[in-house]
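Now for today's protein.

===
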Amino acid sequence: MISRRQFVIGLMTAPLFWWIALLDTAPSRKGRTRRRLSVMGATSLMGYVKAALPGWEQQHAGVRVAVSPGGSYAGLKGLSTGQVDLALSDIDPPPGFVVVPVHRFPLGRIAILIIVNCEAGVKSLSWHQVRALFEGTITNWRDVGGKELPVVVVSRSLSSGARQVIQDGLLKRAELSSHAIIQLSNGAVAKTVRETPGAVGYVEAVMPLSGVLVVDLGAHHYHPANPVSWPLYAEPSIYVRRDAEPLAPNLAEYLARGSERFRFGIYSVAREGEGEGGRRG
């Protein structure tokens, strides 16, 4: 039996797969040599993948690679149903979501930051305060030491892996505010928070942020030169079907080893104990 999240994601992602079909980028299987690949998934990884692709394509002349966003769940669903060759995801597939054997190529970690509109009047929030803001139980910034200003929650959609990280690592069993503004990308969340007085949201640290304030989370202060100590993060990976033609895992391995990952907010870290809000999933 599918979950409510999986049902909603199916409705949201169906048009994307029609678009892929029109481009004739359906994946090939072993025994069928084709010179095209399709990549879909987490919007947080689009910048890195598009920047790294030319280097791989130089080594594989004539191979066409189509890259499209849609979110982690869209990429995983497309991989499972045979619509894409590589799925980009910043969460692990939920049990039963991907129904075919796959290979996983870890990329590292991406910090997930809490951002607020500059008029909110706060620079630091506790874990409890952030939970209450996103739940909607705190509705005015004066209640957390800020200005007399209504709180406006901005979130990613259900198809986003970042939202799943926030749900599992921060909200836990609580629900996101029903009044939240839903956006489809990190850039759209940042823009909405920047332009909306009293807004609060979350973004993956994969792009420069201007016009918003990255708040300290408890005792933790985020610095892009040292993201390892930040306690809220996603762990993105590339997934490839085990029955894919050799080009697909070759591209996945190339991306997983890319030297430019750090420039796009993806950092490596030794496996140790996870922080309070670390990715659980």
